Amino acid sequence: MTCKILVTGGTGFIGSHTCLELIADGYQVLVLDNLSNSQESVLDALEQISGTRPEFIRGDIRDRILLDRIFQEHDIAAVIHFAGLKAVGQSVSQPLNYYDNNIAGTVILMQAMQQAGVRSLVFSSSATVYGDPQQLPIPEDHPLSATNPYGHTKLVLEEIMGNVYRSEPGWRIGLLRYFNPVGAHPSGLIGEAPQGVPNNLMPYVAQVASGQRAQVQVFGQDYDTPDGTGVRDYIHVVDLAQGHVAALRYLQENEPELLAVNLGTGRGYSVLEMIQAFARSSGRDIPYTIAPRRPGDIASCWADTRLAREKLNWTADKDIQEMCDDAWRWQSSQS
Ligand code: NAD
Ligand code: WQD
Fold first, then answer.
1. How far is 204 from 302, CA to CA, in rounded Å?
2. Domain locations in the chain?
3. Nearest bound ligand to CA 292?
4. What is the predicted pLDDT for the residue at 242?
5. What predicted TM-score, i.e. pTM, was given to this entire model?
6. CATH number given to 201-231+267-302+322-330
7. Cα 126 from Cα 122, distance rounded (Å)
8. Does the fold of domain 201-231+267-302+322-330 match that of domain 4-183+234-266+303-317?
9. Is 99 a catalytic residue?
10. What is the per-residue pLDDT for 2?
């Protein structure tokens, strides 16, 4: 029997790539997205790449009536839940919007799942739940903390999911803690399309390479890292998407479990290394200046990847050059 998977936030950056991997693995995909940070035209690209157009419902995860209807009308085996707001700075200026969208939205989604008897959930958590890491690589049992309202929503949602899991037998929940997702599909047809000034390094660098922005501001060169700039575990979005399929399969094939697992490569790159790699991919100069540290930033962050390998039989295999090549192909196709 073909399983139908409800993908909330499925027209977004990570969700759209995950839809492709689900389709490639034989799943039927139903996307629910309110298009607050994505475009319906993503579905055309998904159809062009995969030959299959996912079913799409434009709507909000906070709309309980809509959710009840979706669960009644479709035979849904599991939910992969990407929908949410993700800009750290905006979460500081609009905390209530973040608590409403991310926390209230997820509670409503889980209530609808509970009522419909759907108890398999794969959730987009984040390495932000580790706060300022006390050890590297970061294992899943590292202490958790939050430094901004966005991170707080992920922390609270992990706790809520833990409590729901313990309250009632049968829930299968994957808390996937992503490190720094970057890159794009190798087709160049889908990728990250930030509105306004990008918050994250890779899309900003891509826009400098394409001439849309003058230079990269490197936030701090006095960190305790090999070249003084921040080090992160960048992971190709296609690897990350495949991690979701591996997690879904694991949850479906095993006894009910609450699994928190890192999705990263286990390797860190500095801001300057990232700029150099992007310059190689694009063949363009990427001017940069050193700017003050960005408030709330940490020096270094990379994943302990053993649990994902052992439990999910999954590892990320695309390297930094492939991430930059694919991001550049996508960037070049824009505008
Ligand atoms: P994205 O903004 O591209 O995708 C999120 C999608 O959710 C968008 O299409 C948006 O329109 C939709 N959405 C937002 N609120 C909604 C609502 N209330 N109802 C229905 N749809 C709604 O972001 P992304 O980078 O693909 O991130 C997906 C998930 O992964 C998010 O939960 C994010 O917090 C998490 N995450 C992202 C990163 C990252 O760096 N991109 C890192 C760690 C975790
Ligand atoms: C990476 C490095 C910056 C922009 C954020 C969220 C995190 C997660 C992923 C969702 C850092 C430096 C950046 C620039 C720079 N999202 N930088 N100039 O901060 O590791 O993580 O996105 O869960 O929660 O906090 O990613 O891409 O913003 O920064 O020098 O213009 O690049 O200081 O060292 P970050 P990032």
1. 21
2. 4-183+234-266+303-317, 201-231+267-302+322-330
3. 2
4. 98
5. 0.98
6. 3.90.25.10
7. 13
8. no
9. no
10. 65
- 10-residue mean pLDDT profile of the chain (335 residues): values are 88 98 98 98 98 98 98 98 97 98 99 98 98 97 97 98 97 98 98 94 98 98 98 98 98 98 98 98 98 97 98 98 98 89
Eight-class DSSP state of 128: G
Q: Domain 4-183+234-266+303-317: state its class.
A: alpha beta
Centre of ligand 1 to C-alpha 234, Å, is: 17
Q: Which of 6, 8, 11, 13 to mutate to test the pocket of ligand 1 (most atoms within 8 A of CB)?
A: 13
d(CA 243, CA 80): 12
pLDDT at 89: 95
Identify the pLDDT of residue 21: 98
Distance (angstroms) between ligand 1 centre and the Cα of 83 equals 5
Residue 126 CA to ligand 1 centre (angstroms): 11
Concatenating the DSSP letter of every residue in 145-190 gives: B-SSHHHHHHHHHHHHHHHHHHHSTT-EEEEEEE-EEE---TTSSS
Q: Which of 98, 130, 150, 223 is catalytic?
A: 150
Instruction: Tell which atom from ligand 1 comes closest to the C-alpha of 128.
Output: 43
Q: Is the preceding peptide bond at 137 cis, omega within 30 degrees of 0?
A: yes
